[in-house]
Amino acid sequence: MASIIIHKASSEDWEIIQHLGIQTFTETFAKDNSEEAMKKYLEESFNAEKLKAELSNKESHFFIAWEEDNPVGYLKVNTGSTQTELQDETSLEIERIYVKQSHHGKKVGQLLYDKALEIAQHLNKSCLWLGVWEENLRALNFYRKNGFIEFDKHIFRLGDEEQTDLMMKKVLD
What we know:
Blueprint: E1 4-8, H1 14-29, H2 35-45, H3 48-56, E2 60-67, E3 70-78, E4 91-99, H4 108-122, E5 127-133, H5 137-145, E6 149-158, E7 161-171
Parallel strand pairs: 4-5
Antiparallel strand pairs: 1-2, 2-3, 3-4, 5-7, 6-7
Helix pairs in contact: 1-3
């Protein structure tokens, strides 16, 4: 495997993020959800206007993992008012670490997580937090391995369906 390079995404990268988001979300969740719910969620979450707005927001940061010229995953973190729940000035939300299935087990997710940790430290945040579907055992194990603990639950809407996300946090030194 070629080495993985992480680069900050710009607003011009919206199509790369869109493609990665749709592909990785489908690979991870399509088998456990209805086609209708998946279609609605993907249209709402990865449409061009929404992604362009998110990429131009100064409180959200996107990073793409590249293997040579091939984008294989991405990270989205949020500060301030862009955080989906806590909106705590001392915390950084990891909203997405999405990696292509072809690159699972190849440390791409760890590199993206390490970038999130680096950003949190650079911004002097005292806490990282995220929400993860209670049935996504791969992700739950990954975050637990990286020192996250559960502190609450919230409802995640996938189309018209409600699912339970476990909210997890890691207090930083």
